[in-house]
Structure formats: C-alpha cells, structure tokens
Amino acid sequence: MKLRKNIAISESGFIFDPTSGDSFSLNEVGLEILELLRDDKSAEEITTHFTNQYEIDPVSFEKYFFDFVGMLKYYQLIDEDEED
C-alpha cells in the first residue's frame, strides 16, 4: 500500500488532502504509521516495528493497523492500485 504523494503531513499530525480539501488530525501512533508508509514500508515491516517498539502483540497490532488502513482507504489517502 502506498500513501498518495500529494498528501501533506505536518510534524504535529495534521494531514491535508489538496485533492478533496479535507484535513485530518492524527495521534502520535497514526503519524508514525503514515511516516512508515511514506517510507515504503510493508505491512509486515510496520508490524515488526511496532511490536519491537511497544508492548503489543502482532495479532492485536495488525487488527488496529488494518482498521486504520481501512480509514485511509475510505478517505482516499492511499492509492488503491499500490497495495502489498
């Protein structure tokens, strides 16, 4: 999966989609996930990163991660044709 290139992301977690004019706010974890997506990390690499950094098991993280990715898709922040 790939975050659309025209999405603007601030260091504080503010996201702006210039195509739709929509803006969003993320917490630190959401921002960290978007940064990893922007670095072309796969879902497996992101899961490994979070399970190594935080006290969360892979199954729990993947549930939250794919829920989050579902929201990104819903708001069209991820290119649909660029999935892992």
How is the topology of this model organized?
Layout: E1 2-3, E2 8-9, E3 14-16, E4 23-25, H1 28-38, H2 43-53, H3 58-74, E5 78-79
Helix pairs in contact: 2-3
Structure described in brief:
With 84 residues, this protein is an alpha+beta fold.
Detailed description of the structure:
The protein has 84 residues and is α+β, with helices and mostly antiparallel strands. It has one domain (2-78). The chain has helices spanning 28-38, 43-53, 58-74, and strands spanning 2-3, 8-9, 14-16, 23-25, 78-79.
Class from secondary-structure proportions: alpha+beta
Nearest-integer average pLDDT: 91
Number of domains: 1
Question: Spans of 5+ residues with little confidence (pLDDT < 50)?
Answer: none
| Strand numbers in spatial order across the main sheet | 2-3-4
Assembly type of the shown chains? single chain
Rounded to an integer in angstroms, the radius of gyration calculated over CA atoms is 12 Å
**How many DSSP H or I helices?**
3
Distance between the termini: 5 Å
What's the total number of strands?
A: 5
- What fraction of the residues are assigned to beta strands by DSSP? 5-15%
